Every structure is written in C-alpha cells, then in structure tokens.
C-alpha cells in the first residue's frame, strides 16, 4: 500500500488507492475505463463545475482500486474547463478530492507522435504512472511499429500495449493496479522531473514563449518516439474512403442532412410508441395504487402529486435515451467531428462554430446535457454563446405543451395532402421560431457582450471506429441515472409543494378548498394583472409559475387546476376546459411564450455552474422572459 | 533571405491557406496573437512541423490537414495565419544553415 494514499488531510479516503485515467480525446480512455470497471460506475459532477466525473471500482483479489475517468485533454494548461478540472484533480487541488495515488495515461499508439506531447506535462507531475498505448492491433495491422520496452526505458515508467476491446491485453494494467496494493516495481514515477518547467504546473511562470515551449516539447516527443523505434502506421484506406464521402463537396452535406433527419425522425416519430408505453405503465400503476390505497390525504399526495408530476417527466425518458443513443453512435464512430466540420461554415456565420453543433443538436432533447456538452467548445466566447442560445432549441419538455395547445386550438386542415396539415405546420413554425431566436441572439451576443476575435478553430478528426455495444450501453445507463435523479429531486419537490398549496387553507369541514380559494389559486390571482395583457387568466398564471421548475409541469398543473386526471381519455376534457378559458390569440400567445421563456430551473442551475456565476443565467433568464412576454403580447394582439 | 533563381520565381514563404491539396509543407511561423495559439500548439502545430492539406470541406468550410499522422481541420482564416514553406525548400534552408 502506498503511504501517499493514507496521507493526512487526504479528504475522502476510503482506503482504496485512487487512480486517475488521463489522456487526449478519442484515445480509447473511456473504453479502457469501462472495461476495467464494468458497471461499477458512478457519474457525478464536480462541485462547482459541471464537468462530469465518472468513478468506478476495480475489484482485484488484493483489494479494490478506485478509478476516476477524467475528460479528454490535449494538455494541462487551464485554457478550457476540461483541462482546468483535469489539472486540479491531478494536483490534488480539487475540493473534497484527494490527489490520485497514481495515473493511468492513455495514448493512441497509432497517433503516438501527437499524443506523446500530452505525456510530458502529465509525467512531470511526478506521480506513479502507467502509460497505456491503445490500438496496438491497429498499429500492427497498418504496418506501424514500436518497441514497448524502449519507450518504457525512455519514459522511466511502465508502458503497456493494449487493445482496449480485448480484455486479455489488459493484464499489464491490472498488474499495475494490483501493485498499488502490494507495492510492486511497476509503480514508478517518471524520474525526469526536470521537465517540470512546463507552464501547466502550479504557479510556474511562463519563462519561455509558448510557441518555443511547445516546439521543444514536440521535439522531445519526436526524439522519444524515434528512440522507441516508433514507425507511424500507414494512413488507413477505409478512413480515407469514408472521409471522401463524409466531406465530399456534394455527398458530404447530403449525408449530414440525412443524419440530422434520422435523429429528428427518431426523436419525434419512433420514440412515440415507447413514450405511449411509458405513459400507459405510469397510468396503470397509478390506477392500481388508487384502487388499493384507502381514501386519504396520503393517497391524494401520492397520486395527484407524485405520480402525476413525476410521471409527466418520466414519459420523456425514452426520447432522451434515443437521442443519446444516436449521439453516442455519432461520437464513438468519429462522424461527429466530420459533422462539426461540415456545420462550421454555417455556424461561424451566425457567431458560433462547428463544435456548437453537437450541443445544439442535444438541446432538442434537453438543454441540460446540451449545456454540459458545450464544454467541448474550446473558445470561451463561443462556448458561452452556445450555451446561451441552447435553451431556444425546442427541447422535448416543450412538446407536451405544444401538443396540448395545438390539439385544442388549431383546427386540423390539410395543407399538402394527408401528410402535412395546419397542426404540423404550426409545430414546425414553433421550432423555426426557436432557431431564428437562437441565430439572432448569437449574432447579437457576438456583436456586444462577447465581441472579440475568435480563437482559431482547431478540430481534430479522430479515426473512424465501430462503436462498441458496451460503450453505448454504459453511456445510456449514465444518462438514465442523471435523468432520474433530476426527475426525482426537482420535479418531485415541485409537485409536492404544489399539491400542498392546493390543499390549504382547509374548508370549515376539514375538506380541501376549491382550487380558486386555495393558497395556489390566491397566488394566481395576485399575478393575474401581469399576464392579463397576454390573454391569460390566473389558472394559466399558476401554470406558468409552476412551469418555471420545468416546462412540462404546466400540463400536470393545469390538469390539477381544472380538476381532471391526465390520463388519455380525459385529456380531451383538459382541452375542452382550456377552450373555454383561452381564445385563439391567447393560445398562440401561450405557445409563443413557451418558445422563448426559460422555464427550467435545471437549465438555470446548470448555466450557473458552467459559467461560474449568476451573471449569465440571470441575463439569460431575463432576456428570454422579456422576449417571451413581448412575443406573447404581439401574438395575442394580432390574432 | 536570398533564394536561388529557380525557387525565386514563387515566393519562398506562403500562407498555409494557399497550399494546394497533397503538397507537403513545413510550418515556419505562426502569426496568431497571444494565448489563442495554444489549441494549435497542443496538437503539434508548431514551427518545424509538417502539414499536408488532404481535403477541403464543402462550401468553403475548413480544410483538413495531416499533421504528425493526425487529421486536423482548420478554417481558412486560421490557415492564413500560418506561414509555411515547401518541405523541399525547408530541407534546403536547414542544409544551408
């Protein structure tokens, strides 16, 4: 056992050695991590920043080892959020985290020349390190070569050649982890701490101009490669053929549009049976509970509050999972980088960049993971602009609101035959409004608050690879956990509070009051003057207030307020009730309000964490509210 | 710097954006200010490295370059800040030094 592990003040010390898995993006880091830990993983956010931290346990016969999967980085300088977190974790400067006892540095053997540049600052930390070179089989197949032992000698640490998809080749990695318990000779730190003149280290001044520093680092990396007998593999023919298609003058954009179309089609059409199934399951379980439980306040809380509220959110799980399934395939296959290159021209024109494409696509499911994925946008101004406009993309939480109001107020009339009617046109119109608002906002930001020369767009195109089932399943499992946690905490809290407000003040006989006399109804009447110009009454007002927690909550709220249960058959009753309270103008106003307003506390919370303060989320909230109010007012006035 | 007549016909140093596909060049200078260069440097785009444009993205999008066996896409505006020289000439200069 290393004495480092039991150092005093080490923070959370569970006794097991802590090992950080570090490496450049697409080096096979996460595949290795998944292979070692299996499903014994936890996803959490670092306190204060929303860089996800994946931890997992490797159970060895000698005892457990804790692994922590850090974001893919090209270096340790604090120029991006990912690199900052990686550096702080490795230096043990992260609050609540102790310094790792050892590092597993994952590099791609086929891109060793480039990846060795990351090795220097990592090795200079002086922690016991194992260098894992992935894609060993591909290096051989493409006539590359490398002497493992020579590289190990040159670096002064153990080097393992693995094929992250073949568990048998991982033996040296397990041996290294085991040696952390038993104190084997594999556990070595790089002896050349002289290279610690790197700028990424704590408090190190930038003695050398940055360009010279990296030129020297590259030179050393090349010399290292040379003495280890590294021969770069021949370019992959398959890779070249795929790129010839993906970046083709004509077919490139066609493939791109096709991919986007399939993703959208899957979210909006193929997800429907699954969502209906989930809804039916929730309704059936609710009905069953209703028939079993005796009439009491608890039954009311459980069914009208928890089941209706949390259930209304659970319905989106299939849709979000389908979106993440595609995103995982696109990312793991390497196509996402090509998509970013194709999209860059267009995105650059509106003040964003190619890397904004993935976050904005994700935002069609949910702005929260979208804002988190924006950290791949390295340029800080572009990243802020991306996350600022992400909530304008029509997230799936808006869909139930759109569906309810469109069905209730827009008469179904064919426009282009049976396939395209007025209702679909309105739905598309709402999506387009969101996109236009995003474009205008991005352009506005880039001319005002985020003005400045943008940093160079450097997009690495990783080799194409076949995604593994394991990696995709792991990611979907991660997403499910994150989503359920959100649904479990926020939505549950809101629905319970809401339910309580509908129950008080009690009537003389101890009965629950009519909704208009309840605390909730009274609150609604207080805000009514503010929303009257939009054509909304207090009921909608209450819906708007509760939808601040999450947009879709308004449907459940209106259901509660109008005193109807929200299962399928009676959804028509909610529509009928709405038709009495709203006219076409105010219904469209409500739709427009939902296009623009930032009614999602999770988004606000994630914004605060991602931008490191309240400034941006506060601005975003007010800006979007203003836009929503103005838009709704105009809609109500002209219709 | 004086050039031999046959090489003097075209300017010795060009910008990367003007290099035709499949021509290998060596980076001599980066004309990007301040810390903005770091994303380039981290990927091995430093003076002395060899770059080869392999593909233009459609509709005036970025160009894909091969650097140290890695494919990297750069916008034209970035490539216009990278001063390069054909790898043959660069070898000659190194010899004469």
Kindly summarize this structure in a few lines.
With 639 residues, chain A is α/β, with parallel strands linked by helices. Chain A has helices at residues 29-37, 81-91, 112-123, 136-141, 148-155, 171-182, 210-227, 237-246, 251-292, 297-314, 317-333, 335-349, 357-362, 367-373, 380-389, 399-409, 422-447, 469-503, 519-531, 538-546, 553-561, 568-581, 584-596, 601-611, 615-638, and strands at residues 18-22, 41-45, 52-60, 63-69, 102-108, 129-134, 158-161, 414-416, 420-421, 458-461. Chain A has 25 helices and ten strands.
Describe the structure.
By secondary structure, chain A is α/β, with parallel strands linked by helices. Helix content of chain A is 57%, strand content 8%. Among the domains of chain A are: 3-234, 3-Layer(aba) Sandwich (Rossmann fold), CATH 3.40.50.300; 469-638, no CATH class. Chain A is built from 25 helices and ten strands. Chain A is globular. The model of chain A is unreliable at 1-13, 193-207 and 564-570 (pLDDT under 50). Chain B has a single domain, classed as SH3 type barrels (Roll), CATH 2.30.30. Helices cover 24% and strands 31% of the residues of chain B. In chain B, a hairpin with a 6-residue loop joins β3 and β4 (63-67). The model of chain B is unreliable at 1-9 (pLDDT under 50). Chain A binds chain B through residues 74-75, 77, 79, 110-111, 113-114, 117-118, 210-211, 214-215, 218-219, 221, 232-233, 235, 243-244, 247-250, 252-253, 337, 341-342, 344-345, 348, 354, 378, 453, 455-461, and chain B through 30, 32, 35-49, 54-62, 64, 66-75, 77-78, 81.
């Amino acid at each position: 056992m290393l004495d480092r592990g039991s150092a005093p003040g080490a923070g959370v010390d569970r006794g097991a050695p802590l090992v950080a898995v570090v490496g450049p993006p697409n080096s096979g880091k996460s595949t290795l991590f998944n292979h070692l830990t299996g499903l014994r993983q936890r996803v959490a956010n670092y306190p204060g920043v929303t860089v996800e931290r994946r931890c997992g346990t490797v159970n060895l016969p000698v005892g457990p080892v804790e692994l922590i999967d850090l974001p893919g980085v090209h270096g340790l300088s604090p120029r991006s959020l990912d690199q900052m977190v990686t550096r702080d974790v490795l230096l043990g400067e992260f609050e609540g985290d102790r310094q790792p006892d050892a590092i597993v540095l994952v590099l791609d053997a086929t891109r060793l020349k480039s990846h060795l540049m990351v090795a220097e600052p990592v090795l200079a930390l002086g922690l016991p390190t194992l260098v894992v070179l992935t894609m060993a089989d591909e290096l051989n197949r493409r006539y590359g070569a490398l002497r493992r032992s020579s590289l190990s000698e040159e670096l002064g640490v153990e080097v393992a050649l693995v094929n992250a998809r073949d568990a048998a080749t991982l033996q040296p990695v397990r041996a290294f982890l085991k040696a952390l318990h038993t104190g084997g000779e594999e556990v070595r730190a790089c002896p050349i701490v002289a290279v610690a003149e790197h700028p990424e280290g704590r408090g190190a001044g930038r003695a050398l101009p940055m360009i010279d520093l990296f030129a020297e680092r590259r030179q050393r990396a090349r010399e290292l490669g040379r003495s280890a007998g590294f021969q770069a593999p021949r370019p992959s023919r398959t890779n070249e053929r795929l790129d010839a298609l993906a970046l083709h003058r004509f077919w490139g954009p066609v493939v791109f549009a096709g991919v986007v179309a399939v993703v959208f089609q899957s979210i909006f059409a193929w997800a429907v049976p699954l969502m209906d199934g989930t809804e039916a399951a929730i309704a059936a379980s609710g009905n069953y509970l209703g028939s079993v439980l005796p009439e009491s306040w608890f039954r009311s809380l459980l069914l009208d509050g928890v089941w209706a509220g949390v259930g209304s959110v659970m319905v989106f799980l299939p849709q979000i999972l389908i979106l993440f399934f595609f995103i995982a395939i696109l990312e793991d296959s390497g196509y996402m980088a090509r998509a970013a290159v194709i999209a860059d021209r267009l995105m650059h024109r509106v003040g964003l960049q190619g890397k904004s494409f993935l976050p904005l696509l994700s935002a069609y499911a949910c702005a929260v993971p979208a804002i988190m994925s924006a950290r791949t946008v390295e340029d800080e101004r572009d990243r802020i602009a991306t996350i600022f406009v992400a909530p304008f993309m029509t997230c799936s939480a808006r869909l139930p609101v759109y569906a309810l109001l469109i069905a209730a107020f827009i008469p179904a009339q064919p426009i282009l035959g049976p396939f395209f009617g007025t209702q679909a046109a309105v739905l598309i119109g709402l999506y387009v409004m969101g996109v236009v608002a995003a474009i205008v906002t991005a352009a506005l930001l880039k001319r005002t608050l985020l003005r400045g020369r943008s940093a160079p767009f450097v997009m690495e195109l990783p080799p194409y690879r076949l995604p593994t089932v394991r990696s995709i399943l792991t990611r979907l499992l991660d997403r499910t956990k994150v989503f359920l946690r959100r649904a479990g905490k926020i939505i549950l809290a809101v629905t319970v509070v809401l339910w309580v407000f509908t129950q008080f003040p009690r009537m003389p006989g101890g009965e629950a009051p009519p909704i208009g006399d309840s605390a909730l109804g009274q609150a609604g009447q207080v805000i009514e003057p503010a929303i009257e110009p939009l054509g909304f009454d207090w009921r909608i007002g209450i819906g708007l207030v509760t939808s601040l927690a999450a947009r879709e909550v308004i449907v459940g709220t209106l259901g509660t307020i109008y005193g109807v249960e929200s299962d399928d058959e009676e959804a028509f009753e909610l529509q009928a009730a709405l038709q009495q309270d709203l006219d076409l103008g105010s219904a469209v106003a409500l739709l427009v309000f939902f296009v623009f307003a930032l009614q999602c506390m999770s988004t606000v919370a994630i914004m605060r964490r991602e931008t490191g303060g309240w400034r941006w989320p506060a601005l975003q909230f007010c800006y979007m509210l203003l836009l929503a109010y103005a838009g709704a007012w105009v809609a109500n006035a002209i219709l | 710097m004086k050039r031999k007549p046959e090489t003097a016909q075209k300017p010795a140093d060009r910008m990367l954006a003007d290099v035709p596909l499949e021509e290998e060049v060596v980076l001599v200078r980066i004309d990007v200010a301040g810390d903005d260069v770091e994303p380039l440097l981290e990927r091995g785009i430093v003076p002395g490295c060899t770059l080869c444009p392999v593909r233009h993205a459609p509709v005036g999008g970025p160009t894909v370059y091969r650097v140290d066996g890695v494919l990297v896409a750069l916008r034209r505006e970035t490539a216009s800040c990278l001063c390069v020289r054909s790898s043959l000439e660069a070898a000659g200069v190194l010899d004469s030094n």
